[in-house]
């Protein structure tokens, strides 16, 4: 069962909206190489507001993700893409429905 998750809300700099969307599409592909990442979603809330939600079976999977390539790419590209520093929220999952 999924036990923990992360949520990151992202605000694109003006003119960087397409770049943020492309970055999140690439992140979805990169997540395929993370066995501890059960689910990964890049989402768009509005014209310049985006987010990432990803879920893990346990804390070790979440920690591996936070130390992995996607997190490194997020922080490396943050100054160029985002109006403010990404705020990473750690969540506990109370229930889930995933393909089985």
Give the secondary structure arrangement, pairings included.
Layout: E1 4-11, H1 17-31, E2 37-44, E3 49-56, H2 59-66, H3 69-81, E4 87-92
Antiparallel strand pairs: 1-3, 1-4, 2-3
Structure explained in plain terms:
The chain has a four-stranded antiparallel sheet with strand order 2-3-1-4. Helix content is about 35%, strand content about 30%. With about 100 residues, it is of the alpha+beta class. The chain has a single domain, classed as Alpha-Beta Plaits. A hairpin with a 4-residue loop joins strand 2 and strand 3.
> Would you report the number of β strands?
4
Determine the mean pLDDT: 96
What structural class should be given to the helix and strand makeup?
alpha+beta
Annotation field: number of helices: 3
Low-confidence stretches: none
Number of domains: 1
Rg is: 13 Å
The proportion of residues forming helix, as a percent range, comes to 25-40%
Instruction: Report how far apart the termini are.
Output: 11 Å
Percent strand: 25-35%
User: Which shape, going by the Cα principal axes?
Assistant: globular
**CATH architectural group:** 2-Layer Sandwich
- How would you characterize the largest beta sheet? 4 strands, antiparallel
Main sheet: which strands, in order across? 2-3-1-4
């Amino acid at each position: 069962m999924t036990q923990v998750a992360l949520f990151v809300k992202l605000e694109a700099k003006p003119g960087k909206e397409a770049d943020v969307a492309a970055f999140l599409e690439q992140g979805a592909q990169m997540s395929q190489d993370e066995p501890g990442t059960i689910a990964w979603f890049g989402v768009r809330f509005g014209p310049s507001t985006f987010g990432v939600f990803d879920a893990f079976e346990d804390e070790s999977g979440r920690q591996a993700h936070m130390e992995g390539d996607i997190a490194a790419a997020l922080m490396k590209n943050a100054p160029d893409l985002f109006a403010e520093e990404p705020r990473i929220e750690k969540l506990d999952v109370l229930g889930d429905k995933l393909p089985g």
